[in-house]
TrEMBL record:
This is ABC transporter permease. InterPro entries: ABC3_permease_C, MacB_PCD, Macrolide_Exporter_MacB. Belongs to the ABC-4 integral membrane protein family. It is a multi-pass membrane protein. Keywords: Cell membrane, Membrane, Transmembrane, Transmembrane helix. Its main location: membrane. It comes from Streptomyces lichenis. The chain crosses the membrane at residues 326-345, 378-400, 445-467. Residues 147-168 have a biased composition (Gly residues). Residues 65-94, 136-168 are annotated as: Disordered. Residues 330-463 form the ABC3 transporter permease C-terminal domain. Residues 19-295 form the MacB-like periplasmic core domain. It comes from the Bacteria.
Length: 485
C-alpha cells in the first residue's frame, strides 16, 4: 500500500517533484564540481613538488643560510685556455663545475638518519656546469705604406704614414650552462631522480658508485642530440650516457645525473652534499621529525613538502585558493538554500493536500503513517535530485578537464621553496627566479565524492520530509470535513 500510494502521488505531482529534485541537484552538482576541482589542484601541486622532492620524500635538510657577508665570498668563474703554437686557428674549450648552494658534510646524512621517526635518508649534490667553447682567429698583418714625395720607407719611421697594422682576427665563444646532480646510486628510492621515469636505456646500478656514467633528462638530451651509448664530456671526463629520463611532472630537477662521488670530484667538493632527502616513518610524524632535526642537527634548515607548497604562486595558487575558499563556501550556501527551499516546497505541498490527508485520517490512518508517507515522497525526490546532481557534477567535472585552462605554477622566488629547502638548497639558487611549470587543470571525481553526493541527496530528502511530515502530523480530520463542506 505504501509504495503503491507513493508511486501514484509522485506521478500526480511530477512538476512539484521535479522542482524539488532540481534544486537539490544543482546544490549537489556544485559540491561535486568544487570538490573535483580542489582535488585537481592538489594533484597539480603534487606534480609540481615531485620534480623537486622526488617520490616518497617528506622533507629536505639543507645548510642554514649564513648572515649576509659571511661565508659567501666566492671567486668569479675563471676559464683558462692553453696557448697554441700552431699557426692555424684552433678551437678552445673549458668548463667549470660550481656547487649550487651551501655544502654540508656528508656525515650530516647519518646524523639525520639517527633522529627518531626517520625511516630513510639520502644525500645529493647539486651543481651547475658552465662550459665555454669557441675559437680564436688570427689577424693579418698589413705593412705600412710610404707616403708620396719621398721620406723613409714603410718601416714605420719618420715621414712614414705609420707602422704595420693588424686587420681582422678576434675571438668568438659560446657559453653553455646546465644543471648536474650527484645522486647516491646505492639508494635510488629517494631524491629528485625518482620523479623521472627511464624512457630509454637504464638507470644506475648499485655498483656504479664511482663509475663514469650519466643519466640525462630527455629534454636536455634532445637539445644536445645525446643518445644512449653516447658520450657527455664534463671537465675533460667523458661520461657514458646509459639512460634517458623523462620527468613525470614535465619539469626535471636536473639536466644530468651522475654518481655522487663523481659529482663531488667534478665540483671539488669531496665529502660534501647540498641536500639531504628524508622519508619519515609515518606521515603524521613529519612535524615531529622536523623539530627533532632542527634541534639536534645544528646549522641546518628543514623544509617539508607542506612548507614548499606554501611558496607555490601563479595562477595555480590563485585557482586553488578560489576552489578551497570561495568555491566551498559557495557550494555550502547553495546546498543549504536548496535544502531549505526543498523543505518549504514540501511543506507547502502538504498544505495543499489538507483535504486528502484529513480524509485519510478520517478513514483510519494514524498521524505516523501520514508522516511516513510524506517523508517517503520527499526521500524519493531527494534520491532523484541526487541522481541528477551526480550526472550534472560528472558533466561539469568533464568540462573542466576537457576545456579547462592551463595553469602556471612558480616555485621558490627569494629565500623560500626552490632555493630555500628544495633542490638547490640556497646559494646561487636563491638569487635566481623561481621555476615556472605549466599544469593542465583536471577535475577528477572520486568514489568518495559520489558517496558524499548520495549522502547529501538522502539528507536533502530527510530535511524536506521533516518539514512536510511536521506539517502533516498537525492535520485533523475536521479540517478535511470543513474543506468538503
Amino acid at each position: 500500500m505504501f509504495f503503491t500510494y507513493l508511486r501514484r502521488e509522485l506521478r500526480r505531482r511530477r512538476k512539484a517533484a521535479l522542482v524539488v529534485a532540481s534544486g537539490l541537484a544543482l546544490g549537489i552538482a556544485l559540491v561535486i564540481v568544487v570538490g573535483a576541482v580542489s582535488e585537481g589542484m592538489s594533484q597539480a601541486q603534487a606534480r609540481v613538488l615531485q620534480s623537486l622532492y622526488g617520490l616518497g620524500t617528506d622533507m629536505t635538510v639543507t645548510k642554514a643560510a649564513e648572515p649576509p657577508g659571511e661565508g659567501q665570498a666566492q671567486g668569479r668563474p675563471r676559464f683558462e685556455f692553453d696557448a697554441k703554437e700552431s699557426g692555424d686557428d684552433s678551437d678552445q674549450s673549458s668548463d667549470m663545475v660550481i656547487v649550487q648552494g651551501q655544502s654540508l658534510a656528508d656525515s650530516t646524512v647519518a646524523k639525520v638518519a639517527d633522529q627518531d621517526g626517520v625511516a630513510d635518508t639520502v644525500g645529493g649534490l647539486s651543481a651547475r656546469v658552465m662550459k665555454v667553447n669557441g675559437q680564436f682567429t688570427r689577424g693579418e698583418i698589413e705593412p705600412g705604406q710610404t707616403p708620396p714625395g719621398g721620406g723613409r720607407g714603410g718601416d714605420g719611421g719618420e715621414g712614414g704614414s705609420g707602422g704595420d697594422r693588424v686587420r681582422g682576427g678576434g675571438a668568438a665563444f659560446d657559453v653553455n650552462s646546465y644543471t648536474l646532480f650527484g645522486t647516491d646510486v646505492a639508494q635510488q628510492d629517494l631524491g629528485p631522480l625518482t620523479s623521472s621515469s627511464i624512457t630509454s636505456g637504464r638507470t644506475f646500478k648499485a655498483a656504479e658508485t664511482d663509475a663514469e656514467v650519466a643519466v640525462v633528462d630527455s629534454a636536455y638530451a634532445k637539445e644536445q642530440k645525446l643518445k644512449v651509448g653516447g658520450k657527455l664530456t664534463v671537465s675533460g671526463t667523458a661520461y657514458a650516457v646509459i639512460g634517458i629520463a623523462t620527468a613525470d611532472s614535465g619539469d626535471a630537477a636536473a639536466n644530468v645525473y651522475v654518481p655522487l662521488k663523481q659529482a663531488q670530484t667534478l665540483a671539488d667538493a669531496k665529502g660534501k652534499v647540498t641536500t639531504v632527502y628524508v622519508r619519515a616513518t609515518d606521515s603524521q610524524r613529519i612535524d615531529a621529525v622536523k623539530a627533532a632535526v632542527q634541534k639536534n642537527v645544528p646549522d641546518t634548515t628543514v623544509t617539508t613538502s607542506a612548507d614548499l607548497a606554501d611558496t607555490v604562486s601563479g595562477s595555480l595558487s590563485t585557482a586553488a585558493d578560489l576552489a578551497s575558499g570561495v568555491g566551498r563556501w559557495l557550494s555550502v550556501i547553495v546546498l543549504a538554500a536548496a535544502f531549505v527551499v526543498a523543505g518549504l516546497l514540501t511543506s507547502s505541498a502538504v498544505s495543499r493536500r489538507v483535504r486528502e490527508f484529513g480524509t485519510l485520517k478520517a478513514l483510519g490512518w494514524r498521524s505516523g503513517r501520514v508522516t511516513r508517507q510524506v517523508v517517503g515522497e520527499a526521500l524519493v525526490n531527494g534520491l532523484i535530485g541526487g541522481a541528477l546532481g551526480i550526472a550534472l557534477g560528472l558533466a561539469g567535472a568533464w568540462a573542466v578537464t576537457a576545456f579547462g585552462p592551463t595553469l602556471t605554477a612558480e616555485l621558490g622566488r627569494g629565500t623560500g621553496g626552490f632555493g630555500g629547502g628544495g633542490f638547490g638548497g640556497g646559494g646561487p639558487a636563491r638569487q635566481t627566479a623561481g621555476r615556472a611549470v605549466d599544469i593542465a587543470l583536471t577535475a577528477p571525481v572520486s568514489l568518495g565524492a559520489i558517496g558524499l553526493a548520495v549522502g547529501l541527496a538522502v539528507a536533502g530528502g530527510l530535511v524536506a520530509g521533516a518539514f512536510g511530515g511536521w506539517r502533516a502530523s498537525r492535520l485533523r480530520p475536521a479540517d478535511a470535513l470543513r474543506r468538503i463542506a
